[in-house]
Protein backbone atom coordinates (compact mmCIF):
# COMPACT_ATOMS: atom_id res chain seq x y z
CA UNK A 1 0.00 0.00 0.00
CA UNK A 2 1.42 3.40 -0.96
CA UNK A 3 1.86 6.28 1.49
CA UNK A 4 -1.04 8.16 -0.16
CA UNK A 5 -3.31 5.14 0.10
CA UNK A 6 -2.30 4.66 3.75
CA UNK A 7 -3.12 8.29 4.45
CA UNK A 8 -6.54 7.97 2.79
CA UNK A 9 -7.37 4.77 4.68
CA UNK A 10 -6.31 6.32 7.98
CA UNK A 11 -8.26 9.49 7.27
CA UNK A 12 -11.36 7.48 6.37
CA UNK A 13 -11.18 5.40 9.55
CA UNK A 14 -10.71 8.49 11.73
CA UNK A 15 -13.53 10.27 9.92
CA UNK A 16 -15.87 7.40 10.71
CA UNK A 17 -14.70 7.34 14.31
CA UNK A 18 -15.30 11.04 14.90
CA UNK A 19 -18.17 11.47 12.42
CA UNK A 20 -16.68 14.47 10.65
CA UNK A 21 -17.16 15.37 7.02
CA UNK A 22 -13.77 17.03 6.60
CA UNK A 23 -10.49 15.72 7.99
CA UNK A 24 -6.87 16.19 6.98
CA UNK A 25 -4.21 13.69 8.04
CA UNK A 26 -0.49 13.95 7.34
CA UNK A 27 1.78 10.96 7.89
CA UNK A 28 5.15 11.65 9.52
CA UNK A 29 7.85 9.09 8.87
CA UNK A 30 11.61 9.08 9.47
CA UNK A 31 14.29 6.71 10.65
CA UNK A 32 17.33 7.22 12.85
CA UNK A 33 20.43 5.10 12.43
CA UNK A 34 22.34 4.20 15.60
CA UNK A 35 25.97 3.17 15.55
CA UNK A 36 28.41 2.89 18.42
CA UNK A 37 31.68 1.01 18.89
CA UNK A 38 32.01 -1.83 21.39
CA UNK A 39 35.69 -2.22 22.24
CA UNK A 40 37.42 -5.07 24.05
CA UNK A 41 40.80 -4.16 25.49
CA UNK A 42 43.06 -4.10 28.53
CA UNK A 43 44.49 -1.14 30.41
CA UNK A 44 42.07 1.53 29.22
CA UNK A 45 43.36 3.99 31.83
CA UNK A 46 47.06 3.33 31.38
CA UNK A 47 48.79 6.65 30.59
CA UNK A 48 49.87 5.38 27.16
CA UNK A 49 46.43 4.07 26.17
CA UNK A 50 44.65 6.02 23.43
CA UNK A 51 41.39 4.05 23.37
CA UNK A 52 39.16 6.58 25.15
CA UNK A 53 40.70 9.55 23.35
CA UNK A 54 40.29 7.89 19.95
CA UNK A 55 36.67 7.01 20.66
CA UNK A 56 35.91 10.65 21.46
CA UNK A 57 38.04 12.01 18.63
CA UNK A 58 36.26 9.88 16.03
CA UNK A 59 32.91 11.28 17.18
CA UNK A 60 34.19 14.86 17.16
CA UNK A 61 37.60 15.27 15.47
CA UNK A 62 38.31 18.83 16.58
CA UNK A 63 38.98 20.37 19.97
CA UNK A 64 39.13 19.12 23.54
CA UNK A 65 36.10 17.37 24.97
CA UNK A 66 34.86 17.64 28.54
CA UNK A 67 34.15 14.53 30.58
CA UNK A 68 32.12 14.09 33.75
CA UNK A 69 33.10 10.69 35.17
CA UNK A 70 31.00 8.64 37.62
CA UNK A 71 32.64 5.61 39.26
CA UNK A 72 31.07 2.68 41.10
CA UNK A 73 32.09 3.13 44.76
CA UNK A 74 32.39 -0.62 45.18
CA UNK A 75 34.97 -0.69 42.41
CA UNK A 76 37.10 1.84 44.28
CA UNK A 77 37.38 -0.54 47.22
CA UNK A 78 39.02 -3.11 44.95
CA UNK A 79 41.01 -0.55 42.99
CA UNK A 80 41.65 2.46 45.27
CA UNK A 81 44.06 4.10 42.80
CA UNK A 82 41.42 4.37 40.06
CA UNK A 83 40.68 8.08 40.56
CA UNK A 84 44.37 8.87 40.25
CA UNK A 85 44.62 6.63 37.16
CA UNK A 86 41.74 8.47 35.50
CA UNK A 87 43.19 11.92 36.25
CA UNK A 88 46.63 10.89 34.97
CA UNK A 89 45.17 9.27 31.87
CA UNK A 90 43.11 12.32 30.92
CA UNK A 91 46.14 14.51 31.51
CA UNK A 92 48.23 12.32 29.20
CA UNK A 93 45.55 12.72 26.53
CA UNK A 94 44.98 16.41 27.18
CA UNK A 95 44.92 17.34 23.51
CA UNK A 96 41.55 15.53 23.23
CA UNK A 97 40.18 15.01 26.75
CA UNK A 98 39.47 17.32 29.68
CA UNK A 99 37.89 16.55 33.05
CA UNK A 100 34.99 18.86 33.86
CA UNK A 101 35.42 17.94 37.54
CA UNK A 102 37.16 15.36 39.68
CA UNK A 103 35.72 11.84 39.20
CA UNK A 104 32.63 11.25 41.32
CA UNK A 105 32.02 8.10 43.37
CA UNK A 106 28.43 6.78 43.43
CA UNK A 107 26.88 3.80 45.19
CA UNK A 108 26.90 0.57 43.20
CA UNK A 109 24.57 -2.39 43.25
CA UNK A 110 20.80 -2.31 43.42
CA UNK A 111 20.78 0.49 46.00
CA UNK A 112 21.48 3.05 43.28
CA UNK A 113 18.36 1.94 41.42
CA UNK A 114 15.90 2.38 44.26
CA UNK A 115 14.21 5.58 43.15
CA UNK A 116 15.35 8.87 41.63
CA UNK A 117 17.45 10.48 44.35
CA UNK A 118 20.83 9.57 42.84
CA UNK A 119 19.61 10.38 39.31
CA UNK A 120 18.71 13.91 40.35
CA UNK A 121 22.00 14.38 42.19
CA UNK A 122 23.94 13.34 39.10
CA UNK A 123 21.95 15.77 36.99
CA UNK A 124 22.60 18.53 39.53
CA UNK A 125 26.31 17.91 39.02
CA UNK A 126 25.83 18.06 35.26
CA UNK A 127 24.27 21.51 35.65
CA UNK A 128 26.92 22.64 38.12
CA UNK A 129 29.76 21.65 35.80
CA UNK A 130 28.05 22.89 32.62
CA UNK A 131 27.79 19.53 30.93
CA UNK A 132 26.13 20.08 27.57
CA UNK A 133 25.24 17.97 24.54
CA UNK A 134 28.82 18.13 23.26
CA UNK A 135 30.25 16.91 26.57
CA UNK A 136 30.48 13.27 27.67
CA UNK A 137 29.15 11.54 30.74
CA UNK A 138 31.31 8.48 31.49
CA UNK A 139 30.03 5.62 33.67
CA UNK A 140 32.54 3.15 35.13
CA UNK A 141 31.01 0.27 37.05
CA UNK A 142 28.61 -2.63 37.09
CA UNK A 143 25.23 -2.93 35.40
CA UNK A 144 23.26 -1.03 38.05
CA UNK A 145 25.61 1.96 37.82
CA UNK A 146 25.46 1.89 34.02
CA UNK A 147 21.65 1.78 34.18
CA UNK A 148 21.43 4.75 36.53
CA UNK A 149 24.10 6.96 34.94
CA UNK A 150 22.68 6.18 31.50
CA UNK A 151 19.23 7.29 32.63
CA UNK A 152 20.61 10.53 34.08
CA UNK A 153 22.51 11.26 30.87
CA UNK A 154 19.61 10.33 28.59
CA UNK A 155 17.19 12.68 30.34
CA UNK A 156 19.50 15.69 30.85
CA UNK A 157 19.31 18.22 28.00
CA UNK A 158 17.18 15.56 26.23
CA UNK A 159 20.29 13.43 25.92
CA UNK A 160 23.97 13.87 26.74
CA UNK A 161 26.59 11.71 25.06
CA UNK A 162 27.28 8.73 27.27
CA UNK A 163 30.27 6.36 27.35
CA UNK A 164 29.97 3.10 29.26
CA UNK A 165 32.98 1.35 30.77
CA UNK A 166 31.51 -1.86 32.25
CA UNK A 167 33.55 -3.49 35.01
CA UNK A 168 31.71 -6.75 35.77
CA UNK A 169 31.24 -9.92 33.74
CA UNK A 170 27.49 -9.32 33.63
CA UNK A 171 27.82 -5.76 32.36
CA UNK A 172 30.57 -6.54 29.85
CA UNK A 173 28.83 -9.51 28.25
CA UNK A 174 25.22 -8.36 28.48
CA UNK A 175 23.73 -5.15 29.86
CA UNK A 176 26.62 -2.84 29.02
CA UNK A 177 26.30 -3.47 25.28
CA UNK A 178 22.54 -2.94 25.27
CA UNK A 179 20.41 0.16 24.75
CA UNK A 180 18.40 0.29 27.98
CA UNK A 181 18.67 2.48 31.07
CA UNK A 182 16.47 2.54 34.13
CA UNK A 183 15.82 2.45 37.85
CA UNK A 184 13.22 0.72 39.99
CA UNK A 185 10.15 2.71 41.00
CA UNK A 186 6.77 1.99 42.64
CA UNK A 187 8.02 -1.49 43.55
CA UNK A 188 8.59 -2.43 39.90
CA UNK A 189 11.99 -3.35 38.47
CA UNK A 190 13.22 -0.89 35.83
CA UNK A 191 9.86 0.89 35.78
CA UNK A 192 11.41 4.31 35.14
CA UNK A 193 13.81 4.34 32.21
CA UNK A 194 14.66 4.96 28.59
CA UNK A 195 15.93 3.31 25.46
CA UNK A 196 19.03 5.37 24.74
CA UNK A 197 22.05 3.78 23.05
CA UNK A 198 25.45 4.84 24.41
CA UNK A 199 28.01 6.68 22.32
CA UNK A 200 30.54 3.92 22.98
CA UNK A 201 31.20 0.88 25.16
CA UNK A 202 34.73 0.07 26.32
CA UNK A 203 35.16 -3.35 27.92
CA UNK A 204 38.48 -3.48 29.79
CA UNK A 205 39.21 -7.08 30.79
CA UNK A 206 41.54 -5.91 33.57
CA UNK A 207 38.53 -4.93 35.69
CA UNK A 208 37.37 -8.56 35.72
CA UNK A 209 40.51 -9.74 37.51
CA UNK A 210 39.68 -7.83 40.70
CA UNK A 211 36.08 -9.05 40.98
CA UNK A 212 35.00 -11.29 43.88
CA UNK A 213 34.46 -14.91 42.90
CA UNK A 214 30.70 -14.65 43.34
CA UNK A 215 30.50 -11.72 40.91
CA UNK A 216 32.66 -13.44 38.30
CA UNK A 217 30.50 -16.55 38.42
CA UNK A 218 27.16 -14.74 38.32
CA UNK A 219 27.90 -13.10 34.98
CA UNK A 220 28.48 -16.41 33.22
CA UNK A 221 24.75 -17.19 33.53
CA UNK A 222 23.94 -14.71 30.76
CA UNK A 223 26.35 -16.50 28.42
CA UNK A 224 24.56 -19.79 29.05
CA UNK A 225 21.23 -18.08 28.45
CA UNK A 226 22.09 -16.57 25.08
CA UNK A 227 23.89 -19.74 23.95
CA UNK A 228 20.81 -21.84 24.72
CA UNK A 229 18.47 -19.68 22.68
CA UNK A 230 20.78 -18.63 19.83
CA UNK A 231 24.02 -20.61 19.42
CA UNK A 232 24.35 -24.35 20.01
CA UNK A 233 28.07 -24.28 19.19
CA UNK A 234 28.64 -21.67 21.87
CA UNK A 235 26.73 -23.80 24.37
CA UNK A 236 28.88 -26.77 23.44
CA UNK A 237 31.98 -24.62 23.95
CA UNK A 238 30.68 -23.60 27.39
CA UNK A 239 30.00 -27.25 28.11
CA UNK A 240 33.55 -28.24 27.20
CA UNK A 241 35.03 -25.26 29.07
CA UNK A 242 33.29 -25.71 32.42
CA UNK A 243 36.50 -26.47 34.26
CA UNK A 244 38.35 -23.49 32.78
CA UNK A 245 35.43 -21.14 33.47
CA UNK A 246 34.97 -22.51 36.98
CA UNK A 247 38.58 -21.53 37.73
CA UNK A 248 38.12 -18.24 35.82
CA UNK A 249 40.90 -18.95 33.36
CA UNK A 250 41.56 -15.53 31.73
CA UNK A 251 41.60 -16.83 28.15
CA UNK A 252 38.31 -18.68 28.59
CA UNK A 253 36.70 -15.77 30.41
CA UNK A 254 37.66 -13.28 27.72
CA UNK A 255 36.29 -15.44 24.91
CA UNK A 256 33.09 -16.09 26.89
CA UNK A 257 32.57 -12.37 27.50
CA UNK A 258 33.24 -11.37 23.90
CA UNK A 259 31.10 -14.08 22.29
CA UNK A 260 28.22 -13.47 24.70
CA UNK A 261 28.36 -9.73 23.98
CA UNK A 262 28.41 -10.39 20.23
CA UNK A 263 25.28 -12.52 20.44
CA UNK A 264 23.47 -9.89 22.49
CA UNK A 265 24.52 -7.19 20.04
CA UNK A 266 23.32 -9.27 17.09
CA UNK A 267 19.90 -9.82 18.66
CA UNK A 268 19.49 -6.13 19.51
CA UNK A 269 20.75 -4.90 16.15
CA UNK A 270 19.30 -7.55 13.85
CA UNK A 271 16.33 -8.91 15.78
CA UNK A 272 13.97 -6.26 14.44
CA UNK A 273 12.86 -4.79 17.78
CA UNK A 274 15.76 -2.97 19.50
CA UNK A 275 13.45 -0.73 21.54
CA UNK A 276 11.13 -3.60 22.51
CA UNK A 277 7.90 -2.32 21.02
CA UNK A 278 6.56 -5.85 20.59
CA UNK A 279 5.94 -8.45 23.26
CA UNK A 280 8.75 -10.93 22.49
CA UNK A 281 11.86 -10.74 24.68
CA UNK A 282 14.08 -13.66 23.65
CA UNK A 283 17.02 -12.27 25.61
CA UNK A 284 14.88 -12.56 28.74
CA UNK A 285 14.90 -16.37 28.68
CA UNK A 286 14.75 -17.45 32.32
CA UNK A 287 14.21 -13.87 33.48
CA UNK A 288 10.55 -13.81 34.51
CA UNK A 289 11.40 -16.02 37.49
CA UNK A 290 14.81 -14.39 37.98
CA UNK A 291 13.38 -10.89 38.35
CA UNK A 292 10.76 -12.12 40.80
CA UNK A 293 13.32 -14.07 42.84
CA UNK A 294 15.57 -11.02 43.05
CA UNK A 295 12.70 -8.94 44.40
CA UNK A 296 11.56 -11.64 46.85
CA UNK A 297 15.10 -11.97 48.20
CA UNK A 298 15.47 -8.19 48.45
CA UNK A 299 18.36 -8.59 46.00
CA UNK A 300 20.41 -10.85 48.26
CA UNK A 301 20.29 -13.22 45.28
CA UNK A 302 22.49 -11.73 42.54
CA UNK A 303 20.95 -11.19 39.11
CA UNK A 304 23.13 -13.85 37.48
CA UNK A 305 22.41 -16.34 40.26
CA UNK A 306 18.68 -15.75 39.80
CA UNK A 307 19.02 -16.11 36.01
CA UNK A 308 20.73 -19.49 36.48
CA UNK A 309 17.74 -20.68 38.52
CA UNK A 310 15.33 -19.18 35.98
CA UNK A 311 17.12 -21.00 33.14
CA UNK A 312 16.91 -24.29 35.03
CA UNK A 313 13.21 -23.72 35.74
CA UNK A 314 12.19 -22.85 32.19
CA UNK A 315 14.31 -25.71 30.85
CA UNK A 316 12.50 -28.09 33.19
CA UNK A 317 9.16 -26.70 32.03
CA UNK A 318 10.22 -27.08 28.38
CA UNK A 319 10.65 -30.81 29.06
CA UNK A 320 7.27 -31.11 30.80
CA UNK A 321 5.44 -29.57 27.82
CA UNK A 322 7.24 -31.83 25.35
CA UNK A 323 9.49 -29.29 23.65
CA UNK A 324 12.86 -30.51 24.92
CA UNK A 325 14.27 -33.92 25.69
CA UNK A 326 15.33 -34.78 29.23
CA UNK A 327 18.84 -35.64 28.02
CA UNK A 328 19.35 -32.08 26.77
CA UNK A 329 17.86 -30.63 29.95
CA UNK A 330 20.31 -32.71 31.99
CA UNK A 331 23.18 -31.19 29.97
CA UNK A 332 21.94 -27.71 30.85
CA UNK A 333 21.77 -28.56 34.55
CA UNK A 334 25.23 -30.15 34.46
CA UNK A 335 26.79 -27.02 32.98
CA UNK A 336 25.07 -24.73 35.48
CA UNK A 337 26.02 -26.88 38.47
CA UNK A 338 29.53 -27.44 37.11
CA UNK A 339 30.05 -23.67 37.14
CA UNK A 340 28.97 -23.52 40.77
CA UNK A 341 25.38 -22.30 40.48
CA UNK A 342 22.70 -23.43 42.88
CA UNK A 343 19.49 -24.35 41.05
CA UNK A 344 17.18 -23.98 44.02
CA UNK A 345 16.16 -21.30 46.51
CA UNK A 346 13.60 -21.77 49.28
CA UNK A 347 11.75 -18.61 48.20
CA UNK A 348 10.68 -20.48 45.07
CA UNK A 349 8.00 -22.24 47.10
CA UNK A 350 6.90 -19.21 49.15
CA UNK A 351 3.14 -18.68 49.07
CA UNK A 352 0.67 -15.91 49.80
CA UNK A 353 -3.09 -16.09 50.23
CA UNK A 354 -3.57 -15.93 46.46
CA UNK A 355 -0.97 -18.54 45.56
CA UNK A 356 2.72 -18.90 44.68
CA UNK A 357 4.73 -15.71 45.08
CA UNK A 358 7.13 -16.82 42.37
CA UNK A 359 4.31 -17.41 39.89
CA UNK A 360 3.22 -13.80 40.37
CA UNK A 361 6.34 -13.01 38.38
CA UNK A 362 4.54 -14.17 35.22
CA UNK A 363 1.86 -11.52 35.69
CA UNK A 364 4.50 -8.86 36.41
CA UNK A 365 6.44 -9.92 33.33
CA UNK A 366 3.33 -9.59 31.17
CA UNK A 367 2.48 -6.21 32.67
CA UNK A 368 6.01 -5.00 31.95
CA UNK A 369 5.75 -6.16 28.33
CA UNK A 370 2.17 -5.08 27.76
CA UNK A 371 -0.12 -7.12 25.55
CA UNK A 372 -0.10 -10.88 25.57
CA UNK A 373 2.25 -12.96 27.67
CA UNK A 374 5.34 -14.02 25.74
CA UNK A 375 7.83 -16.40 27.32
CA UNK A 376 10.87 -17.98 25.68
CA UNK A 377 11.26 -21.74 26.11
CA UNK A 378 13.71 -24.22 24.59
CA UNK A 379 12.87 -26.25 21.51
CA UNK A 380 16.46 -27.54 21.35
CA UNK A 381 19.88 -26.57 22.62
CA UNK A 382 20.58 -23.35 20.77
CA UNK A 383 16.96 -22.79 19.71
CA UNK A 384 14.52 -20.65 21.64
CA UNK A 385 10.76 -20.74 21.05
CA UNK A 386 8.25 -18.03 21.99
CA UNK A 387 5.04 -19.23 23.67
CA UNK A 388 2.05 -17.23 24.88
CA UNK A 389 0.56 -19.53 27.46
CA UNK A 390 2.07 -21.07 30.58
CA UNK A 391 0.32 -23.84 32.48
CA UNK A 392 0.51 -22.98 36.16
CA UNK A 393 0.13 -26.61 37.32
CA UNK A 394 3.00 -27.69 35.06
CA UNK A 395 5.19 -24.77 36.14
CA UNK A 396 4.52 -25.64 39.77
CA UNK A 397 5.53 -29.20 38.90
CA UNK A 398 8.74 -27.86 37.35
CA UNK A 399 9.45 -25.98 40.61
CA UNK A 400 8.82 -29.17 42.60
CA UNK A 401 11.15 -31.10 40.30
CA UNK A 402 13.97 -28.61 40.88
CA UNK A 403 13.49 -28.88 44.63
CA UNK A 404 13.64 -32.66 44.43
CA UNK A 405 16.77 -32.59 42.29
CA UNK A 406 18.43 -30.18 44.72
CA UNK A 407 17.62 -32.47 47.65
CA UNK A 408 19.16 -35.42 45.83
CA UNK A 409 22.41 -33.64 44.87
UniProtKB/TrEMBL annotation:
Domain 3-dehydroquinate synthase C-terminal: 219-351
Pfam families: DHQ_synthase (PF01761), DHQS_C (PF24621)
Coiled coil: none
CC cofactor: NAD(+)
Keywords carried by this UniProt record: Amino-acid biosynthesis, Aromatic amino acid biosynthesis, Lyase, NAD
Listed GO MF terms: 3-dehydroquinate synthase activity
Keyword Amino-acid biosynthesis: yes
A biological process from GO: amino acid biosynthetic process
Keyword Membrane included in the entry's annotation: no
Residue ranges annotated for the 3-dehydroquinate synthase N-terminal domain, each copy included: 105-217
InterPro entries (alphabetical): Dehydroquinate_synthase, DHQS/DOIS_N, DHQS_C
PANTHER family: 3-DEHYDROQUINATE SYNTHASE (PTHR43622), 3-DEHYDROQUINATE SYNTHASE, CHLOROPLASTIC (PTHR43622:SF7)
Name the record gives this protein: 3-dehydroquinate synthase
Phylogenetic lineage: Bacteria, Pseudomonadati, Pseudomonadota, Alphaproteobacteria, Hyphomicrobiales
